[in-house]
Write a structure and sequence with these properties.
about 300 residues; alpha/beta; 6-stranded parallel sheet; 3-stranded mixed sheet; globular
Length: about 300
C-alpha cells in the first residue's frame, strides 16, 4: 500500500519550490500547484501536476505546502485575497517550508488555528541542486500528530525531516543553521586565501579539507565555486545578511553573545558594499583575497561537488 494517501497542494514554484514539488510528483503523489506567475508552474503539468489559478483553489487538498519568498508572501497566499484560508473548505494541514521570521510564522499559525487548520513550520537547508540530488534536509515543528501525517511527504522531498518540538522551534533551528553557514563560509574563505598565498593551489587545499574530519557536504559542495570562481547565485550575500541579522536579534533577545557571528555579519556587509549584490555568497572569498593583496584566478579544473 502506498504511503502517499493524501492529496497535496503546493504554493510557490521558484527554483526551490519547483524542484521540491517535482520530487513529490516523481514519488507518485497527487499534486495541485499554484504560483503567482503561472508560467513558472506550468512545466510541472508535464509530470502530472494540476495547475490552479489561486491559492484558494487548493483548499480542497488534504495537505498544502508553501515555499514562498518572504513573510508578506506567506501571509498573502494564506490569509490575503483568494488566500488558502479564505475558502469555505479548508485543508487539514498547512506545511510552510519558507524561510520566514518566527513572528510571521506564528501569525500564520494563529490565523490557521482560527480556521481549524494545523500548521507545521518546516524550513529547509539546501538549494535546487541539492533538492534534485535528494539531499535536502528539513527541520519541522508543530503538533507531533501533524508531523507524522506530513512525514512521508517530507521524506519524499528530501533526505528526511527532523522533528524538534512544538510551535516555532524549527525557525530557531534554521536561523542557527544559517549562522553556522555564514561563519563557516567566511572562515573557509580566510583559510583558503591563507593557503594559496602560502603557495598551495586552491583545488589541492580544498581536496585535503574535504577528505579530512573537517570536511563536510557543504565544503565539498562549495569547492567548485572556490576553485573556478563561479559565482552563479545559489544564496546571495543579502539573504545571508538577513539571516545573520535574525540570529543576532535572537541572541540579543535571549542574552546569548554571538561575537563570531557579529564579525561575520560585518564581513558580509563589506562584501555587499563592495558591489557583490546578487552574486553567490561564495564571493566572500573574493573580498578576503582583496584584503590579502591576492589576485584570484580561476583554476579552470573539473572538480566534484559531492552531490
Amino acid at each position: 500500500m502506498s504511503n502517499y494517501t493524501h492529496t497535496i497542494g503546493w504554493i510557490g514554484t521558484g527554483r526551490m519550490g519547483y524542484a521540491m514539488a517535482k520530487n513529490l510528483l516523481d514519488a507518485g503523489c497527487d499534486v495541485s500547484v499554484y504560483n503567482r506567475t503561472r508560467s513558472k508552474a506550468e512545466p510541472l503539468g508535464e509530470f502530472g501536476a494540476k495547475i490552479v489559478d489561486t491559492p484558494k483553489d487548493l483548499s480542497d487538498r488534504d495537505i498544502v505546502f508553501t515555499m514562498v519568498s518572504g513573510p508578506n508572501d506567506l501571509l498573502n497566499v494564506t490569509a490575503g485575497q483568494n488566500g488558502l484560508l479564505t475558502a469555505e473548505k479548508k485543508p487539514q494541514l498547512l506545511v510552510d517550508c519558507s524561510s520566514v521570521s518566527e513572528e510571521a510564522s506564528a501569525r500564520t499559525r494563529n490565523e490557521a488555528k482560527k480556521m481549524g487548520v494545523a500548521v507545521l513550520a518546516a524550513p529547509v537547508s539546501g538549494n535546487a541542486k541539492v533538492v534534485k540530488a535528494g539531499k535536502l534536509t528539513i527541520v519541522a515543528s508543530g503538533p507531533q500528530r501533524s508531523f507524522e501525517m506530513a512525514k512521508p511527504y517530507l521524506n519524499a522531498i528530501g533526505i528526511g525531516a527532523t522533528y524538534v518540538g512544538e510551535n516555532e522551534l524549527a525557525r530557531m533551528v534554521k536561523i542557527c543553521h544559517n549562522l553556522l553557514l555564514g561563519v563557516v563560509t567566511q572562515n573557509l574563505s580566510e583559510i583558503t586565501v591563507l593557503a594559496e598565498k602560502g603557495g598551495v593551489p586552491r583545488h589541492a587545499f580544498l581536496d585535503f579539507i574535504n577528505k579530512s574530519v573537517m570536511g563536510s557536504m557543504f565544503t565539498r559542495y562549495k569547492t567548485p565555486a572556490f576553485v573556478n570562481l563561479d559565482m552563479t547565485p545559489t544564496f546571495t550575500p543579502e539573504l545571508l545578511r538577513k539571516d545573520l541579522d535574525l540570529g543576532l536579534a535572537a541572541g540579543k533577545s535571549l542574552g546569548v553573545p554571538l561575537p563570531v557571528t557579529q564579525l561575520t555579519r560585518d564581513m558580509v556587509q563589506k562584501t555587499i558594499d563592495a558591489g557583490h549584490s546578487g552574486r553567490d555568497f561564495a564571493v566572500l572569498l573574493e573580498e578576503q583575497a582583496k584584503a590579502s593583496n591576492l589576485e584570484l584566478k580561476s583554476e579552470n579544473l573539473e572538480v566534484g561537488d559531492g552531490l
